[in-house]
Amino acid sequence: MKRFVYINDDEASKELCCDNRISNTKYNLWNFFPKNLLEQFSRFMNQYFLLIACLQLWSLITPVNPASTWGPLIFIFAVSASKEAWDDYHRYLSDKKANEREVWIVKHGIKKHIQAQDIQVGNIVWLRENDEVPCDLVLLGTSDPQGVCYVETAALDGETDLKTRVIPSACVGIDLELLHKMKGVIECPIPDKDIRRFDANMRLFPPFIDNDVCSLTIKNTLLQSCYLRNTEWACGVSVYTGNQTKLGMCRGVAEPKLTAMDAMIDKLTGAIFVFQIVVVLVLGVAGNVWKDTEARKQWYVQYPEEAPWYELLVIPLRFELLCSIMIPISIKVSLDLVKGLYAKFIEWDVEMVDQETGTASYAANTAISEDLGQVEYILTDKTGTLTDNKMIFRRCCIGGIFYGNENGDALKDTQLLDAITSGSTDVIRFLTVMAICNTVIPVRSKAGEIIYKAQSQDEDALVAAAAKLHMVFVGKNANRLELMFNGVMIRYEVLEILEFTSDRKRMSVVVRDCQNGKIILLSKGADESILPSACAGQQTRTIAEAVEHYAQLGLRTLCLAWRELEEDEYLEWSVKFKEASSVLVDREWRIAEVCQRLEHDLYILGVTAIEDRLQDGVPETIETLRKAGINFWMLTGDKQNTAIQIALSCNFISPEPKGQLLLIDGKSEEDVSRSLERVLLTMRTTTSEPKDVAFVVDGWALEIALKHHRKDFVELAILSRTAICCRVTPSQKAQLVEILKSCDYRTLAIGDGGNDVRMIQQADIGVGISGREGLQAARAADYSIGRFRFLKRLILVHGRYSYNRTAFLSQYSFYKSLLICFIQIFFSFISGVSGTSLFNSVSLMAYNVFYTSVPVLVSVIDKDLSETTVMQHPQILFYCQAGRLLNPSTFAGWFGRSLFHAIVVFVITIHAYAYEKSEMEELGMVALSGCIWLQAFVVAQETNSFTVLQHLSIWGNLVGFYVINFLFSAIPSSGMYTIMFRLCSQPSYWITMFLIVGAGMGPIFALKYYRYTYRPSKINILQQAERMGGPILTLGNIETQPRTIIEKDVSPISIMSTQPKNRSPVYEPLLSESPNAIRRSFGPGTPFEFFQSQSRLSSSSGYTRNCKDN
Amino acid sequence: MSSNTASSSAGSGDSSAARKNSKRPKYSKFTQQELPACKPILTPGWVISTFLIVSVIFIPLGVISLFASQDVVEIVDRYDNDCIPAPARTNKVAFIQGDSPKACNRTLTVTKRMKQPIYVYYQLDNFYQNHRRYVKSRSDSQLRSPKFENQISACKPEDDVGGQPIVPCGLIAWSLFNDTYTLSRNNTPLAVNKKGIAWKSDKEHKFGNKVFPKNFQKGNLTGGATLNPDIPLSEQEDLIVWMRTAALPTFRKLYGKIETDLENGDTIQVTLQNNYNTYSFSGKKKLVLSTTSWLGGKNDFLGIAYLTVGGICFFLALAFTIMYLVKPRRLGDPSYLSWNRNPGGGR
């Protein structure tokens, strides 16, 4: 499908007829109510409450005033509807702002000022510096004579560096005045969401260059929401408008995520619902039987002889209404409220603020904090997540000579500096490639410094390093590059750029040396993509060894190469390249093929090694979380060796003899299947041993394993606590998440780059690191944090507390609802099973909404264990992971407790208030006060730490109960007029209350004490230890001490600094260079080929940064 | 050389500096969840003393309650069966619905001195005033003011007679208790004060002094007592008492007050009109004379319950003490933590 855009021609473009109105709103004024209601009623709970509320309108069966259900129901609906409306209104406002922005366009040959929403496809739009691009444009002209302009694409992909955009070749040299009158046609694909691709063609009409089809790429476009920078003006023709722009198409609503806890609560609600139906059926039948046998004799009830057809239904329905409070209507509101607060606590946490940038953590999804406490698997990206993504050029190998091996910094290697001064050809060429084989833009700041705007951190590191080695990339002026070498200006003219793609894994530039006119091809790329193209005579062995050596140190490597081209060869090739660049179908592949024809017989100059430092606290975080029973998988696009080294240095895998690495590899299906089986076999036998077994798999083998041996792989996934997946693509990352999810594991995915977005969205919890690679991952994520080490706190502190608090809150909500419901059920046995409510409507409504919900809400600041204790004993997270605090058996406990309390309240009330005191209103209030007193004590007993707020809410609520009831008792028209005053003046009322509390709490308190002391859970033990200030602290110290020693030794963080000689002994032998040493790690019966063929196995080089772009 | 100053993308640098001020969360004890908290733990000492204290409070309270209840003198006389002449006892319902004379004489003996005021109650057993059909069959607004005379929708089936609203409407009023008692002591009439038996608030606010009975008991079914149509509802105290529905199927309602002391050995003759039909549902009718204490009428339940709970608490305190002495357990011993015993535990 294609679309034809006629430039500057209103008539011809009419058929496309879309203006540039952006609309992100979900509702409009008219459909808000129906649509929102429909949405809310798609939830089962809401349907249930609506049904109950409707039934209550039938006065024959309603035991209480319908307001007691309608009130809360409408309240709840109003709350969520207004929240939606508020959000939508803000979306509307921001849309409106964008729509009404004024822009300059050309209409009928005249420049006009119109609102952004009136832009039509085919209009020519003019932009000035720092303007936001209103729709997707194809560049036609810029202020720059070479037709270059710079854009900031942060809003689109989160990358903060400037990107260059150029005008199509056909438009070069068109006069400013002529631009107004330009006519032509652009043939482009129908709107899609790929922001890195735009394969189109343009043909200009006479008087412009006739019939010359000019190919367009993404480099010729200005996409909506980007900003024009460093360019005075630019103009372009709009091709996609409104919601059809690339940005508009990218927008999508992520599926709402449901926590495991919500699922459990739903399950329990379902169980309660079934229980309720059973109760209703039993009581309904009993009621009808009693009616026919007894009630007919009770003349004062006057049961009619003739009954309407629905007579049999009346009593069951009455009980249905009476029991409807079993499912607490307040639970959804309470949960939403506390979940919002959990999210706020995460955002407020000053210990999770990145000190460097001042970025606080952010919870985009406020509904899933509990899941953080139940994480079982963490899938993490490597670059930028575990590491800093701060690339530093450390070592290099030029022509077989290693630089930087002694002090770990090639920039200070005197040998290299000498070589530069002496002007060794290889070294100078090497530096030239470092400096100009890239897409970096040098920008001179006002202070005169040169700032490099690089899309990739690797390129940035190389250019900066070259500058330090006296090869300064000074300026880029259209196609002219200026290099300053030792004070001498060298100029190059860029002829072509053969761009990086993740398939080619290399990039090249063709430049002409302006001094001697020679045409040179400069290439850099992964070893496996460069080395095969080496010229016949060259020995690549030393290069391969260097690559291997660097990779084992955890460095990212790039091979640099060089070739002089003949003029003819270049010209011939250049035609083909142009041809390939204008193909609409499979353009990328065709270009790759053409590039291949030029990139051969390369002279390999050497290898660069770039260090990517580990982030602070990564090893400790991983160790703590692993102790907490969380399994780690590392998914990276990096090469295998680098990944393993990083994994070792951050405690990801344990070195021998504690750990064992198993490799799944192979190029063919059989190979993979064989090695998968072998690994599985080893896994099964070693699971009993306390040994850390990890498997390593690369993208290729993973692809085959997932395709043909999914079952085996899933089993492997279940058996293995640790896995390293290298060279994996974004979609494979998402697939791995899906596999773990399908095994019912709670997964957390953490990443920082655009390539992690799919994994982050797929996982139960997505965490984004708001790092250097832009905010793309952080935007898609549920939580964004500044540093990896905050993950520890996010899970152990926030996740755990959230889980504990919600566990208490939800079960307590059921407890209090069941309590009052059981009393109603008991009462029905002494009221002729007729479905009379003991409590009046006001009490019933206020019970759920006020009396019982306030104290429990304060449980959001309850802490069972202090943060330090949890950090010292991360194993305690197991209680959350295994769902020990909210499951059917704990729920049964609460169910039993409410039954017991209902019996206590009911029996004591009807006996203490018997005979002459058995007035209905009074009895109801006595029973209700009994419930309130009990619930206050239950909350108090379940609270682990009392702050002022807790005391205030628990006891204040009790006082509030009396205040509210005194108020109602003062209103003559209310049913309970004077009741509360009468009761409170009776000694027997207070005596009854104390009795209820004593009888209700005594056994529960005793049971709790018994469990706490004689059958303590781990949480109890830690509580005791923590509060007695006893031995636990010394234990913690013992635990941390040896680790700090190791830390000093490894001086972690930088792998670079761990020289082979002073490496900590624990890291033997996996770190040792000899492949044989590694082979020892596998038992004698398992002769795995592990590292020996790594250069062929691993393919993605230190170039991952660029892979992410794709 | 200028090259030394080359640095990487500066865009993030200044933008993050701007963010620094706006994004950094405010520090407060609440937002950091660090409010000073008291974290009690259940040490044996605390728990045992709590139980001891509870038992020390509850047992005396139970004794006091029991004494209060024992102080109350109560005479209960069940008359529903005896007040039907022997021949009619085969079909009691027919007798009570018939026109034969319903007068009946009962003699009660005072076994212990009763100090005034002595309350006269009637007690009904197995009478469901709390039945769903019954309890809702009333119109409070109608009782309060003549303006709302026609608000009778809740009163079915006793709502109107031939289109005219019944005042007071509904099953409760319709089934008003209509046995009457005339008491005499040692053959001298004993005054039973029927004033002031209803709640003051009911008389003043719930039953209007301008609302007069209308069309009451005029329907084709006659329920209980009739009302004098010339006395406003606020003065019809029997009705007001009756309309305070009981929550239990066994209940007592105040009939009147005797404002003289009764001595030990006094005999009290009761002449009663046995009008009310409890026979069709085999309910009992009892006449109760009772004094009162600070805790109310005669009711041993509270005392016994207090003694039981207090006893149990004492027993628990004792049991926990013994357990503590026999099998002491160190609280918070880290050796109980399974992961300290075998590494990698938890799963």
Automatic annotation (TrEMBL), chain A:
The keyword ATP-binding is assigned to this record: yes
Subcellular location: Endomembrane system; Membrane
Pfam families named in the record: Cation_ATPase, E1-E2_ATPase, PhoLip_ATPase_C, PhoLip_ATPase_N
Binding site for ATP: D381, K382, T383, E459, F500, K524, R556, T636, G637, D638, R727, K733, N755, D756
Bilayer topology: Multi-pass membrane protein
Catalytic activity from the UniProt record: ATP + H2O + phospholipidSide 1 = ADP + phosphate + phospholipidSide 2
GO terms of biological process kind: phospholipid translocation
Limits of the P-type ATPase C-terminal domain: 778-1017
P-type ATPase A domain segment(s): 100-162
Main location: membrane
Extent of the signal sequence: none
Domain P-type ATPase N-terminal: 5-70
PROSITE patterns: ATPASE_E1_E2 (PS00154)
Cofactors demanded by this protein: Mg(2+)
Top-tier EC class: translocase
Enzyme Commission number(s): 7.6.2.1
Keyword Translocase set for record: yes
Record keywords, A-Z: ATP-binding, Magnesium, Membrane, Metal-binding, Nucleotide-binding, Translocase, Transmembrane, Transmembrane helix
Gene Ontology molecular function: any one: ATPase-coupled intramembrane lipid transporter activity
Active site: D381
Family to which this protein belongs: Belongs to the cation transport ATPase (P-type) (TC 3.A.3) family. Type IV subfamily.
Protein name: Phospholipid-transporting ATPase
TrEMBL record, chain B:
Locations listed in the record: Membrane
Record keywords: Membrane, Transmembrane, Transmembrane helix
Residue intervals passing through the bilayer: 46-68, 304-326
Highest taxon above the source species: Eukaryota
InterPro entries in alphabetical order: CDC50/LEM3_fam
Topology of this chain in the membrane: Multi-pass membrane protein
Region spans: Disordered: 1-28
Single GO cellular component term: plasma membrane
Bias-annotated ranges (Low complexity): 1-18
Family annotation (Pfam families): CDC50 (PF03381)
Family named by the database record: Belongs to the CDC50/LEM3 family.
Identification of the protein by name: ALA-interacting subunit
Species of provenance: Raphanus sativus
Gene that specifies this protein: LOC108821963
